[in-house]
Specification:
The structure holds two protein chains of two kinds. By secondary structure, chain A is an alpha+beta fold. Chain A has three domains: about 30-265 and about 405-465, FAD/NAD(P)-binding domain, CATH 3.50.50.60; about 270-400, Succinate dehydrogenase/fumarate reductase flavoprotein, catalytic domain (Flavocytochrome C3, Chain A, domain 1, Alpha-Beta Complex); about 475-605, Up-down Bundle (Methane Monooxygenase Hydroxylase, Chain G, domain 1). Chain A is built from 17 helices and 19 strands. By secondary structure, chain B is α+β, with helices and mostly antiparallel strands. Chain B has two domains: about 5-110, Beta-grasp domain (Ubiquitin-like (UB roll), Roll); about 115-255, Alpha-helical ferredoxin (Fumarate Reductase Iron-sulfur Protein, Chain B, domain 2), CATH 1.10.1060.10. Chain B has eight helices and seven strands, in the order ββαβββββααααααα. In chain B, the strands form two sheets. Chain B has a five-stranded mixed β-sheet. In chain B, strands 6-7 form a two-stranded antiparallel ribbon. In chain B, strand 1 (about 5-10) and strand 2 (about 20-25) form a beta hairpin. The chains are: A alpha+beta, B alpha+beta. At the A-B interface, helix 3, helix 5, helix 6, helix 11 and helix 12 of A face helix 1, helix 2 and helix 3 of B. The complex binds flavin-adenine dinucleotide and FE2/S2 (inorganic) cluster.
Chain lengths: ~650, ~250
């Protein structure tokens, strides 16, 4: 085994680690920065922030996105808000408390040092965004407003109406575009990265496909940064945008970057259920609805009456019944699993019997129509637009959906993967959320990585390559990867099979959802580990991709992404199979308490599982990074 | 339900396009308009005809990626609704629906229904920002911003950059898009230092790509976020002032 996991966690007390590290890292002198070329893939919160900040420091930056504009990255869709330990409300918040909540929320499967740094820089993010003109919500005195969010007992979530992600991304995008205008960043839109080029053990560039004319070409840089988002779309149906995919991370993995904790995925409890089998995207409804809505299903699975006509005695308010103290506010994972059980038992509601009711009738009689409208009108309107049902009159139907992936490329404290010179930031890495992410913490992490961590840590690596020119793109290392990429693209076009890419993706998604979704067990995972590779073989020989490779071809793009999802899905199941405990988003039926809560095994599983690619999709090699908890005591999460 | 589509097909920017007719049977009212196109595309693929190219991503009306002319209306018949939020229940069984790309000189068709909107990025790069290098910002509560100002800035900032405003405008003007960003930043205290340069640079870049505004107001009607044309008035006012200020500065130096 050649791979070693060196987390490079600095010495010293937790609160001094980052300061000390910043001081001890090598620096690149301002005049030398322009001699370095950094390739940034992705323009979401992570990528846009990193590209802008690196250019401001003086580096030459090339930034890539498959979108037509950097502003379209999936970060734009985040609604709720962003956490920061500002303690503007004097309610006892602090960096340590945010750190503590995040480690605990992650069910003790994250790295303490990274999380503490995240909490430290959270405050700078709010300053930065405000200075950029991000119109955060304000109080009458003109100061910034906060709301509270799941998993915290303080008010530390900053927000911009229901569009926080949009406004933060547009802020980062504006800084990025300023640099584009100044010529320090070269922007490449509608360009998809399809591989990483590694020479002499370090990342030296990437290979891309131009989505408009199909050109496959190489780019060289002193370092490569992947800010390419998460992989929830492996499930086919998720709250992620249609184009979100894992190709960049997966191709990096195949070139030597370890993939950490792929089985840690988050299912969001309040999404609108699928309306038909052709639906391609699920919509999230803010979790805040659970503050006033009551969740129930009819007791009789064959009940065909309208919700309003079902008498109280024939309804099962199952969350209130099973979790009397938390009731409808049971945590994300617990309430998601309870909904699945109800639907699996045949008690689901709606035309496809694939949802549960979220009922506001009591809230309306208790608070009045106007109060409910004031609190939720925009959500009710969004719901009605999609379903054509009026939540004031008939209960909403909701169901859990894949939403966020905690797993990702393994990175050290400097955010470098196991391939020197290759970095991963934002949702693409595994770093800060352990086995479960708290609400409003992904935006924080993406911007922390992009604005305040990577721009410093990358210098430590680059300093060692001063006056070394980039590897030219006519080097055989580039030619080899370009050839492989061309062959791969041509392969999809050549197969001339009978089934569409989406058809395969739907079937794959179903398998991953059934066996590696909200709850998992050994026999299901074994089944998935044999069925997914079999379906993958079918995909390779029977997929039908029309058109050509040298033109805009959306089916061809999708074929490559689904091909990578097949491989990643297998790894997710292998990881889930090996982790014989339940923690956060990873729930193994075999490991639960009497109350149905996740049962961790800290003795045997308090480690990061980092997988090495071997060429055989079902047989990766496991490397372990042991996790040490020196500042937060290991404890069982409890909702009693 | 069943609809007949007349869809603009164009192989690439330089190719000549034409309408093609497709019958789409067996679709459900609850499908979104783009899901209906997804279904058609799968059927076309099975039949051996290349699927229709169109852009979309979030499918919840926030990313601004989608956008086509539906029966001659940008984003279709529903007010304040992006194409991805349009549902088949807005149409009647048996309807014929015409689907075309945005039409504007600054937005070349890339293929079928997909256009290139890079000109919008150019406008932002010319001034749609506040120059604040990372790490140099003061504490966020140092400058209080009146709630009403923050709310008005947010109203403008809600623009999703889809370009429906340009597509709907008889002159292909981009004033609503540009004004939304100018107004957001020029209203906020943080935006004051660059206020006059911002409006000059952005308006001039806009004019190099797009037509002139003659106050038709079609943009506001087509906007999926109901961005108000009042912001255009703010931009125009600032533009005139900026011209005047600059002249004065020039004459002082002169
Ligand atoms: C509906 C929804 C609501 C959410 N709400 C919240 C919330 O309220 N608070 C919160 O904290 N988090 C929230 N999240 C999570 C959060 O939005 C994301 O985790 C975060 O925005 C990810 O940012 P990112 O920069 O890592 O990636 P993304 O924003 O996904 O950006 C990825 C970028 O990479 C590019 N890219 C990817 N692959 C390639 C390739 N191969 N070649 C070229 N370019 C590529 C894309 O074009 C894009 O620019 C929400 C998520 C969803 C789905
Ligand atoms: S697809 Fe994002 S706005 Fe329509």
């Amino acid at each position: 085994m050649t791979m070693t996991l060196d987390s490079k966690i600095p010495d010293g007390p937790i609160s001094d680690k980052w300061e000390n590290h910043k001081f001890s890292m090598k620096l690149v002198n301002p005049n030398n920065k322009r001699k370095f070329n950094v390739l940034v893939v992705g323009t979401g919160l992570g990528g846009a922030a990193a590209a802008a900040s690196l250019a401001e420091l003086g580096y030459n930056v090339d930034v890539f996105t498959y979108h037509d504009s950097p502003r379209r990255a999936h970060s734009i869709a985040a609604q709720g808000g962003i956490n920061a330990a500002k303690n503007y409300h004097g309610d006892g918040d602090s960096i340590f408390r945010l750190f503590y909540d995040t480690v605990k929320g992650g069910d003790f499967r994250s790295r303490e040092a990274n999380v503490h740094r995240l909490a430290e820089v959270s405050v700078d993010i709010i300053d930065q965004a405000t200075a950029q003109g991000v119109p955060f919500a304000r109080e009458y005195g003109g100061l910034l407003d906060n709301r509270s969010f799941g998993g915290a007992q303080v008010s530390r979530t900053f927000y911009a109406r229901g569009q926080t992600g949009q406004q933060l991304l547009l802020g980062a995008y504006s800084s990025l575009m300023r640099q584009v205008g100044l010529g320090t960043v070269k922007l490449h839109t509608k360009i998809e990265m399809l591989d990483v080029v590694v020479k002499d053990g370090r990342a030296v560039g990437i290979v891309t496909r131009d989505l408009v004319n199909g050109e496959i070409r190489s780019w060289s840089g002193h370092a490569v940064v992947l800010a390419t988002g998460g992989y929830s779309n492996v499930y086919y149906l998720s709250t992620n945008a249609m184009y979100c995919n894992a190709t960049a991370a997966w191709r990096a993995h195949r070139r030597g970057a370890a993939f950490a904790n792929p089985c840690y995925t988050q299912i969001h409890p309040t999404c609108i259920p699928q309306s038909d089998e052709f639906q391609s995207k699920l919509t999230l409804m803010s979790e805040s609805l659970r503050n006033d809505g009551r969740i129930w299903v009819p007791k009789n699975p064959d009940d065909t009456r309208r919700a309003r006509d079902i008498p109280e005695s024939e309804r099962d308010y199952y969350l209130e019944r099973i979790y009397p103290s938390f009731g409808n506010l049971a945590p994300r994972d617990v309430s998601s699993r309870a909904a699945k059980r109800a639907v699996d038992a045949g008690n689901g509601v709606g035309p496809l019997k694939n949802g549960v009711y979220l009922d506001f009738a009591d809230a309306i009689s208790r608070l009045g129509h106007d109060k409910v409208e004031e609190r939720y009108s925009n959500l009710f309107e969004m719901y009605e637009r999609i379903t054509d049902e009026n939540p004031y009159e008939t209960p909403m139907r909701i169901y859990p959906a894949p939403h966020y992936t905690m797993g990702g490329l393994w990175v050290d404290y400097n955010l470098m993967t196991t391939v020197p010179g290759l970095y991963a930031i934002g949702e693409a890495n595994f770093s800060d959320h352990g086995a479960n992410r708290l609400g409003a913490s992904a935006l924080m992490q993406g911007l922390a990585d992009g604005y305040f961590v990577l721009p410093y840590t990358i210098g430590d690596y680059l300093a060692g390559w001063l006056n070394t020119p980039v590897v030219p793109t006519d080097d055989p290392a580039f030619a080899a990867v370009e050839d492989e990429t061309k062959e791969r693209v041509a392969g999809f076009l050549a197969s001339r099979g009978t089934r569409t890419v989406d058809d395969f993706h739907r079937q794959l998604g179903r398998l991953v959802w059934d066996y590696c979704g909200m709850s998992r067990d050994e026999s299901g995972l074994d089944k998935a580990i044999s069925e997914i590779p079999a379906l993958y073989e079918e995909f390779k020989s029977d997929v039908k991709v029309l058109g050509t490779g040298d033109s805009l071809n959306q089916t061809l793009e999708k074929a490559g992404r689904v091909d990578d999802f097949f491989q990643l899905a297998t790894l997710m199941c292998v990881d889930a199979r090996h982790r014989e405990e339940s923690c956060g988003g990873h729930f193994r039926e075999e490991y639960q308490t009497e109350d149905g809560e996740a049962l961790r095994d800290d003795e045997n599983y308090a480690y990061v599982a980092a997988w090495e690619w071997t060429g055989d999709i079902s047989n990766p090699v496991l490397h372990k990074e042991d996790l040490e908890f020196e500042n937060v005591k290991l404890a069982t999460r409890s909702y009693k | 339900m069943r609809v007949t589509l007349q869809v603009w097909r164009q192989a690439n920017t330089d190719a000549r396009g034409e309408f093609k007719t497709y019958q789409v049977d067996d679709i459900k009212e609850d499908m979104s308009f783009l899901e209906m196109l997804d279904v058609l595309n799968e059927r076309l693929t099975i039949q051996g005809e290349e699927p229709i190219t169109f852009d979309s991503d979030c499918r919840e009306g926030i990313c601004g990626t989608c956008g086509v002319m539906v029966n001659g209306q940008a984003h279709g018949p529903e007010a304040a609704t992006a194409t991805c939020q349009l549902h088949m229940r807005s149409f009647q069984d048996g309807d014929t629906i015409t689907v075309e790309p945005w039409r504007a000189g600054a937005f070349p068709v890339l293929k079928d229904l997909m256009v290139d909107r890079a000109a919008f990025d150019e406008i932002i790069a010319s001034g749609g920002f506040i120059s604040v290098p990372t790490g140099s910002a003061p504490d966020a509560n140092l400058i209080p911003v009146p709630k009403s100002v923050a709310e008005a800035a947010m109203d403008a900032a809600a623009c999703i950059g889809c370009a429906a405003c340009v597509a709907a405008c008889p002159n292909s003007a981009a004033n609503l898009f540009t004004a939304a960003k100018v107004a957001q930043l020029n209203m906020l205290p943080q935006g004051q230092p660059e206020r006059w340069d911002r409006v000059l640079n952005m308006v001039e870049t806009m004019e190099s790509y797009f037509g002139s505004c003659t106050n038709h107001g079609e943009c506001e009607k087509a906007c999926p976020k109901s961005i108000s044309i009042d912001f255009i008035a703010i931009m125009n006012r600032d533009y005139v002032k900026a011209k005047f200020k600059n002249r004065r500065l020039v004459s002082q130096q002169g």
